[in-house]
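Batch manifest line 132
LIGAND: protoporphyrin IX containing FE
JOB: complex structure
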Amino acid sequence: MNNLAYFHPVAGGAVLAFLFYVGSLALRSRSRRRGAAALLAQHARLAPWMFVLVLVGWAGGLFSTWWLRHDLELGGSTHLRIGVGLVVALTGGWLTSRVMRNPTLRTAHPWFGIAAMLLGAAQVFFGLQITP
Ligand code: HEM
Ligand code: HEM
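JOB STATUS: finished
ARTIFACT:
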């Protein structure tokens, strides 16, 4: 087994840690009044980068499986499908973040984010099951 096959799981773990950090900035801004605006501004600044990294991580996992993991069926894992769910949830977060003036969509935004965080936890679980 090529050691490069470990790159995606380690990089994927780092991307998910970043996702939890970015989500926690926004959630913490709700429970404390002091510094809330700064936390939310940092969340808004970092979140698009996190979204891009998750998209790159998804493509990277597929590429790594195709290139290095001939023992796995390409596109056959639950891990891949949860990755699709993660991308869909973050796309919802991104779209709602662009229309924050609409109160309903503003309320919906964190739920897309929380769904993404739950799917991220499941992604670690199912990723470890196919780790070499
Ligand atoms: C701790 C986090 C993660 C672990 C342990 C992990 C583990 C793995 C492993 C072992 C593979 C097989 C390829 C290889 O060995 O390099 C894989 C494939 C894959 N990963 Fe991850 N991964 C993680 C995070 C992510 C993230 C954040 C995404 C993006 C949403 C992602 C998307 C994919 C996809 C799409 C595949 C292809 C699967 C297939 O073709 O069936 N992974 N992952
Ligand atoms: C990790 C998951 C995420 C969680 C848990 C989350 C949560 C939140 C929460 C609780 C708020 C405050 C809403 C309010 O004030 O009513 C917020 C605001 C915001 N979020 Fe997220 N979000 C996530 C992902 C994202 C993503 C992917 C983007 C964009 C790509 C994004 C961009 C924004 C923006 C621009 C705001 C408004 C900031 C402001 O008004 O200053 N978030 N988010």
